[in-house]
């Protein structure tokens, strides 16, 4: 059966803004019905990476930092953008994890990828699970970064995430879901301890609804850059 949906034709494009962080492409488009749509702005970013990183002790390595778009200090997964020198996305996330948290080593699994916002962004997010990471370096932060490292038990973090205990980026929620499913469905021997941890969470009593998320996490280290 012929698909009645057709991609738009791009009749012309202009780069209307560009800096080191993003490029704005303004297109003149025509849809399958002949309608001209202009300007249609597309944000061109590098691909992004993030990771659910778990230490040898079974703790998730999280970052807590100010996010200016929201105007809030929020907890999230380590991550960032790929660079032209990265041969594979896994190289980008290994670098970002090490720079933001000082944690490295271990074993990395690609658990999925998705579009950040395919309506007007062209970049892809690659999500990873990392196990048996260890603190091997000090943080190496950009001058604009001030990041606290947060360690949280994997099962407790998973429980609180899906009960709304954290205000996470949507892309981080996707990564956590992909990584959790990867662990639960895997028969790899090295993932079985994590699988048991996740399954045991359902035997534990939930927190009371009025307990704040700040009381469920412990800040283990603070990035010194910018302080």
From TrEMBL:
InterPro entries: NUDIX_hydrolase-like_dom_sf, NUDIX_hydrolase_dom. Residues 44-174 form the Nudix hydrolase domain. Pfam families: NUDIX. Residues 205-227 are annotated as: Disordered. This is Nudix hydrolase domain-containing protein. It comes from Dictyobacter halimunensis.
């Amino acid at each position: 059966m012929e698909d009645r949906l057709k991609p738009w034709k791009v009749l012309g494009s202009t780069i209307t803004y560009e800096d080191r962080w993003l490029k704005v492409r303004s297109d003149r488009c025509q849809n399958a019905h002949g309608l001209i749509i202009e300007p249609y702005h597309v944000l061109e970013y590098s691909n992004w990476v993030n990771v659910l990183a778990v230490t040898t002790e079974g703790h998730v390595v999280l970052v807590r930092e100010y996010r200016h778009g929201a105007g809030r200090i929020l907890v999230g997964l380590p991550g960032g953008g790929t660079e032209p020198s990265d041969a594979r996305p896994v190289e980008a996330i290994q670098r970002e994890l090490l720079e933001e948290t000082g944690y490295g080593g271990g074993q990395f699994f690609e658990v999925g990828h998705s579009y950040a916002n395919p309506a007007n962004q062209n970049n892809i997010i690659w999500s990873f699970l990392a196990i048996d990471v260890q603190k091997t370096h000090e943080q190496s932060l950009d001058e604009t970064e001030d990041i606290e490292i947060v360690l949280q038990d994997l099962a407790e973090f998973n429980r609180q995430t899906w009960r709304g205990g954290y205000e996470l980026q949507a892309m981080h929620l996707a990564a956590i879901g992909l990584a959790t499913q990867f662990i639960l469905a895997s028969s790899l021997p090295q993932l079985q301890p994590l699988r048991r941890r996740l399954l045991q969470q359902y035997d534990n009593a939930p927190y009371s609804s009025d307990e704040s998320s700040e009381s469920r996490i412990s800040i283990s280290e603070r990035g010194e850059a910018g302080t």
